[in-house]
Amino acid sequence: MRLTSANVNGIRAAARRGGLDWLRAQHADVLTLQEVRARDDQLAQVLADGGLGDWHVTSAPGRTKGHAGVAVLTRQPPLRTSTDIGPVEFSDAGRWVEVDVRGPDGPVTVISTYVHTGEARTPRQDEKMRFLDAVGSRLETLTANDGYAVLTGDLNICHSADDLKNWKGNTGKSGFLPEEQAHLDRWMAEHAYVDVHRALHGPGPGPYTWWSWRGKAFDNDAGWRIDYQFASAPLAALATRAEVGRAAAYDQRWSDHAALTVDYEITLG
């Protein structure tokens, strides 16, 4: 199973910049998208125009036009789909979608999530923390019977200083708060999830997955690693390769994020 996750920063803008051509060339078995920023009909049209119209699409558009939105694309019809993460306040937020695909020993649950940006010491940060609480509860449920599950997406959290070039300058800011990082610690320690990218790559700094459009952040590789694949232990043990699709040059970027592709030694279908 090749799984590619990408924050597209607006699916229509990404398509105009060649993003769908890039995604199609990865030959993935499953694609997860974040910040789609499109209604279901708009997403379907863009995918069809971009040569991905024959995929099975499960999406959760954001409640506000032009914001959020996540999707999972599979080559095979999904066994189960859900956009329910639990709390009612997130029911139409466009930040969570999960799909079960058929694996050799049972279903494999693939999740696409887009976590709030947050802002320290504000209600928006409180909302982010409540969402992370809900994510942790759902992840615990999914691995109760040693199931195969993987959480992909833009978490808007750098887990450690290895994940943020200017970590000193961002101390105390949302995205690099100890209370945010503690959630990722719990997923790993209590629920046995593995940060597959970091496990395969080894210590940092980087590789980063997000750079501001402004200034020389991309050219200087002054980035953040905020896009992840957290796999349950049984699935993580089958991961063989992780690669960040960083553009070769600034003018070749099709999103402010770079996609993360992981290969797992498991056959779907």
TrEMBL record:
Residues 5-257 form the Endonuclease/exonuclease/phosphatase domain. GO terms for molecular function: double-stranded DNA 3'-5' DNA exonuclease activity; metal ion binding. Mg(2+) binds at residues 7, 35, 154, 156, 256-257. The active site is at 114, 154 (proton donor/acceptor), 257 (proton acceptor). Probably binds two magnesium or manganese ions per subunit. The record marks 227 as: Important for catalytic activity. The record marks 156 as: Transition state stabilizer. Its cofactor is Mg(2+); Mn(2+). It comes from the Bacteria. InterPro entries: AP_endonuc_1 (IPR004808), Endo/exonu/phosph_ase_sf (IPR036691), Endo/exonuclease/phosphatase (IPR005135), ExoIII-like (IPR037493). CDD domains: Nape_like_AP-endo (cd10281). One of its GO terms (biological process) is DNA repair. The record marks 257 as: Interaction with DNA substrate. Keywords: Hydrolase, Magnesium, Manganese, Metal-binding. Belongs to the DNA repair enzymes AP/ExoA family. This is Exodeoxyribonuclease III. It comes from Knoellia locipacati.
